[in-house]
Amino acid sequence: MTALLPTSTAGSLPKPSWLAQPETLWSPWKLDDGELAEGKRDALRLSLAEQQAAGIDIVSDGEQTRQHFVTTFIENLGGVDFENRRVMTIRDRYEAAVPVVVEAVTRKQAVFVEDAAFLRQHTDAPIKWALPGPMTMVDTLYDAHYGSRRDLAWEFAAILNQEAKELAAAGVDIVQFDEPAFNVFFDDVKSWGIAALERAAEGLECETAVHICYGYGIEANTDWKKTLGSEWRQYEETFPRLRESSIDIVSLECHNSHVPMELLELVRGKKLMVGAIDVASPAVETPQDVATTLRNALQFVDPDQLWPSTNCGMAPLPRTVARAKLAALGAGAEIVRRELSEGSLG
Ligand SMILES: [Zn+2]
Question: Which residues form a coiled coil (predicted)?
Fold first, then answer.
């Protein structure tokens, strides 16, 4: 891996239009059965090739084999009824018909382990694999069994831990838990969110990351962002606790957002995947735009702990746009890498 400023993405990348409807969340598959299985693998290989062409150092599956970052994982669990959905408000923001927890949740089988092994076969680069975090899972379901968000999160954490350990054994170098809900439910984060996250990551021999963001560039999220005021200080609530946690890496949103850069100081000591690509806008950053965000972050992050990334997943973007943004990320990181090695920064 590149010694300095290794690049990665937050997670999802657009799927090819022959596999799923583009620019759509929860997009239905266009293939069935054996063709679908083969199509997902082909898309995973394409996604890997696109990341490598853009100079991305830590690669992922681009989430090509899953319909959605939370629900696809839940579909593989027992105790959840997907037929009789209930309408619920997700992250206090938008309504969705969600599955219902009807009895004790169980992990019936490995969910992504075969896909991770497949990715491992095709690259020697470090691999990052994203899983939903326990709190975000709880927030994407209607619970008719546990009667306690904390208890349900704890069960999910144990299930995630099993999956994460098998992913690590399959050759995954970094397991990332996606917790956008950490930017909304601050009291829950304090009372059980971090503990559940640590439970999910317990005993893992690979590195662990948590991704906390302001969401995909969908309308419900952009409307919500308009209510947050000129300075987004949500990270201020969670970072001091994450700094004390067992999690190795924090993945966060920095580019074009209203997050004051000095908040990064609150997690000093952790490796930071700093979002330098805006996923809520189709405008493609220049490498210089990326470099500017990274230079700003370097005021608060040590160079050996800064890992350039995207603000969030790019699944809802047009594929050509996502490809260009990946290239800008790779080229922007290279600019700053050169400046650091020449000693022309700081
Ligand atoms: Zn995100």
Answer: none
Helix (H, G, I), strand (E, B) or coil at 82: strand
Q: Which two tokens stand for residue 167?
A: 């992913």
For residue 198, the CA-to-ligand 1 centroid distance in Å is 19
Q: How far apart are CA 265 and CA 22, in angstroms?
A: 38
- Residue in 291, 290, 294 with CA at minimum distance from that of residue 306: 294
Which pLDDT tens digit goes with each residue over 18-75? 999 999 888 999 999 999 999 999 999 999 999 999 999 999 999 999 999 999 999 9
Secondary structure letter of residue 193 according to DSSP:
I
Question: How many angstroms is it from 310 CA to the middle of ligand 1?
Answer: 9
Whole-number average pLDDT of the chain: 94
The alpha carbon of 12 and the centre of ligand 1 are apart by a number of angstroms equal to 9
Looking at CATH, the fold of the domain delimited by 33-68+108-133+147-342 is given as TIM Barrel (3.20.20)
Domain residue ranges in the chain: 33-68+108-133+147-342
Interval 204-213 mean pLDDT: 96
Taking the centre of ligand 1 as the mean of its atom positions, its distance from the CA of residue 18, in whole angstroms, is: 25
b/e map of 312-339 (b: 16 or more CB within 10 Å)? bbbbbbebebbbbbbbbbbbbbbbbbeb
Phi, psi of 205 (to 5 degrees): -90, -15
Cβ contacts of 52 within 8 Å, gap of 6 or more: 59, 123, 125
CA neighbor of 13 nearest in space, from 53, 3, 31? 53
Q: What distance in angstroms lies between residue 312's CA and the mean position of ligand 1's atoms? A: 4
Residue 2 has pLDDT above 60, yes or no: no
Decide if pLDDT at 283 tops 90.
Answer: yes
Tokens of 152: 């349900």
Task: In whole angstroms, give the CA distance from residue 6 to residue 14.
Answer: 22
